[in-house]
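Help!! Second protein's tokens look totally different from the first
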Amino acid sequence: MKVMTATEASRSLAAVLDQAEHEETIVVTRGGKHIAVIGPAPVVPGRMVKAFLARSAGTLDDDFEADVAAAREAVDDEMRGTWPDA
């Protein structure tokens, strides 16, 4: 795990993001205190989301189901293809 100051991180944000993309975790400090952790984003395959929704059918409240439907409507076809295992 790499540690860098907030100033260093801001000056080299593109490099920090490249490191995170390559599975590295960076701890950002300010005044010697840890203030943030930058790392790879968790990946949740689309099949896991589908499985959760299938298992939860009939047990979710109407508001949640409406929120999921609205989210599906908001995602265009180009974005839809970027989810792994969707």
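Here's the second one for comparison:
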Amino acid sequence: MKLQDTLSKSEQEVDISKNIKIYLCGVTVYDESHIGHARTIIIFDVLRKYLESKGIDIEFIQNFTDVDDKIIKRANAENKTAEEISKKYIENYFLDFDGLNVKRATRYPKATEHIKEIIQFIEKLIQKEVAYVTKNGVYFSVSKFPEYGKLSKKKIDELQSGARIEVDEEKKDPLDFAVWKLSDKEPTWNSPWGEGRPGWHIECSAMSIKYLGENFDIHGGGRDLIFPHHENEIAQSESCTGNQFAKIWMHVGMVTIEGEKMSKSIGNVKSIKHVLENWGPNIIRLFCLSGHYSKPIDYSEELLKENLIKWRQVETSHYELIHADNKNSEKSDELIQKLSTDFDNALENDLNTHLALSAFFQLVKEPNRLAAEEKLGKENALKIKAELKRMSDILGLEIPEITKEEKQEIDELIQNREIAREEKNYQKADEIRDKLNEMNIELIDHKGKTVWMRKEKIQAEK
């Protein structure tokens, strides 16, 4: 499997002969998670699910930044503690991402639970003379890391000429960044340098190395984290350990809203809660996977509607497979094998979810074609269904299973409707159809029989 590495600007081979260790920068928990967060986390969810489908063990770490100036500002505005704010939005995070069918990480370390490791990390940086203490805190000295800028391809001298001098005149260089901030405002922790709290960048270095070791396989996040967050992580981590930090740096493109950057000032931020309530998890996942992960993607109602139409094809195909019983059947073995290979090749070639979805939808069309031609046999249907299930599981798409009791009730209602129509009791037939509509059951007429499907309720359709 190959993935685009931001550091080398080339595709790098992932060594799948062993367990894969992945660190994904999570959210700063001061507000609701939005569609941009969803895209990054869904992309990594598909990467993980694909590797696991091949029998590879994945150690997947995703942090929560639960101490930050934004959290403190929110806490002060709401007259709450920073812990109360972070706890609320962590709980909401899990509601959102469980709802999006994202598999939970191996661990979700929090910055506040790793203060000891962060302090030990800073002490090593000071010992190595790449960090220094001021009256306002501890800073990493960017000039002591000659390779600074290698991830973002920014040059130190250009950054220095364009840098604004911060309020802290104690800094030796405007580019130097805080690893520990001295403060008397809660939350604070004791440290050898005084009461304070960690800087943003240091927490990810300390936690990733604690759980995954000094040199792990993949470090990921949104493209907005390349500079300064990931650049600073590399500088402090490699200065501390003397080793390469992550083998591959994988970054996901931004989500724009109808061509504009998401911004609270514009008021166009789409929370996951909002999009889930309106579109459901499958449409959101299809949207997030519709373009190559490294490129920006534009969120629009039109694109979501297109994905809804595609999802209805998936549902129809699923239920045609369930109802398949035609004896005049046509086999699809060669097509299944071809599309299965195309699907895997697409994901192994830099996680090309766009091409993987193309193979998936080609297979979705097959049962619908065969059913229309009265050639969908049970044995063939089971093979198609198994491969569609494999692809769906990797993509994180899910059609809720219908219980035996529900199926029996629906079958009886349809049978009673047919009897009512034969008896020309159209009022009763219409009443039964109305009841089926309330259950989100749609009837599909074939020659000599009527089959049914259950459509997912999509609020945005109303």
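Reply: Different proteins will give different token patterns, so don't panic. Residues 287 and 397 are 12 Å apart (CA to CA).
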